[in-house]
Amino acid sequence: MTDTVRMTDVLAAGRAELMTALAEADEHAALDQVLGLLDAGVPAEGVLLEVVAAAQAEIGRLWQADRWGVAQEHAATAVVEHVIAALGARVTTATTRGHVVVACLEGERHAVPPRIVAEVLRGRGWQVTFLGAGVPIAHLVPYLREKVPDAVALSCTLARDLPRADQAVAACRDTGTPVLVGGRGFGEDGRWARALGVDTWAPDAAAAADLLDRPGWRRAARPAPPRPVAPAYTALLTRRAELVDAAVAALDERFPPARDDERQPDEVREEVGELVDFLGASVYVDDPELFGGFVSWTAAAPAARRLPPAGTRVVIEVLARALRADPPGVLRHLDCGRQVLATR
Ligand code: B12
Q1: Average pLDDT over residues 32-57
Q2: What is the CATH number of domain 93-227?
Q3: Using a 6 Å cutoff on CB, does residue 106 contact ligand 1?
Q4: 64 lines ligand 1 (CB under 6 A)
Q5: Atom 31 in ligand 1: which residue has the minimum CA distance?
Q6: Residue 300: pLDDT over 90
Q7: pLDDT given at position 1
Q8: Taking each helix axis from N to C terminus, what angle separates 330-342 and 288-300, rounded to the nearest 10 degrees?
Q9: What is the pLDDT of residues 194-213, one digit of tens each?
Q10: Least buried of 19, 111, 148, 330, by fewest C-beta within 10 Å?
């Protein structure tokens, strides 16, 4: 048996054991198991990516498939955060490289993915400051001006936040700081990073570290010429509240809430708002597949949604009617959502 095969087996067994501990939210078992892998000589980066990150992604699949409830997912994610911190504390690589600031965009609560990036970069010898979830641009910019890091790494998990990511990248570049981006929000192949004119995207933490090993990434500091924002996006943004009201009213009419209905009006409103925001992001990057992909996800994750596919259909029709006379461009995005629902 080769060393590579042996390591693959060790990592697979580690993942399975970690999942067992996470299913029980057993913090001690999870810590023992993961730190045990380090003691057995598995490199910290392998543990972080092949064991911890993979387990976290599996948590997502279980949640989406309604095999784990929200509380179980939250409990397991909390343990994962502790595990990552413990792994980070055990890595004692000397700082031989520059300083990288890692941050989530404003409104972004998915702090685990960039935390993994932060720990991998630290393990590769970078000095890393992790700013965590939800960092407003207005606070990030003065921080960068004060600390003058070598790079800032911005994480975006939800594609609906791409317009905000665009603003954040531009604001960071204005400070002269090179920007790296990553996270599922930029699309699996980073296509929406490219749509925003950012070529320093990496698919995962190891690739992010590799990117910083290559010469040339510092060009990501150059302020890009401002890109025109589609009038259809501006119109959508301006009319957001009115569009959400109209869609919620149509839903109430079409599906009058029963007396024992567990749906919370605020949750339905929030999900309608989400659809409008994903539509906005889709228009912003000019790729209807973004909206189509989100609609597809909503239909595939009924357990995570208050709004069933029939409700999403109603929202799409209300938006299509309301936006008919607006600057063109939105309807083909809504069409993509319609087509996705038609195939279900
Ligand atoms: C845990 C979790 C949460 C937790 C986050 C807790 C925390 N402290 O992080 C909580 C409960 C807060 C949450 C909330 C929500 N979530 Co959530 N969440 C997840 C879950 C299960 C895991 C995320 C994670 O940590 N993944 C593991 C990491 C390792 O994976 P990763 O993203 O691939 O990360 C790698 C790369 O992306 C890259 N990378 C990441 N950042 C960066 C940055 C840079 C600079 C670089 C170079 C690289 C890079 O490197 C990472 C490591 O290799 C995912 C499911 C999943 N499979 O990921 C859903 C998921 C992301 N969530 C989802 C949703 C919808 C939501 C909510 C909108 C739900 C709701 N209605 O409330 C909210 C939104 C909250 C918000 N405003 O941000 C959906 C997104 C669907 C979509 N199409 O957009 C997902 C995919 C779930 C699913 N399968 O349906 N969530």
Answers
A1: 94
A2: 3.40.50.280
A3: no
A4: yes
A5: 113
A6: no
A7: 46
A8: 30
A9: 999 998 999 999 999 999 98
A10: 148
Average pLDDT over residues 71-81: 95
The CA 1 to ligand 1 mean position distance, Å, reads: 36
Structure confidence at residue 5 (pLDDT): 60
Q: Tell me which CATH homologous superfamily contains domain 1-92.
A: Methionine synthase domain (1.10.1240.10)
Number of Cβ atoms within 10 Å of the Cβ of 162: 27
Does the pLDDT at position 316 exceed 70? Answer: yes
- Write the CA distances from 80 to 34, 55, 291, integer angstroms: 10, 9, 30
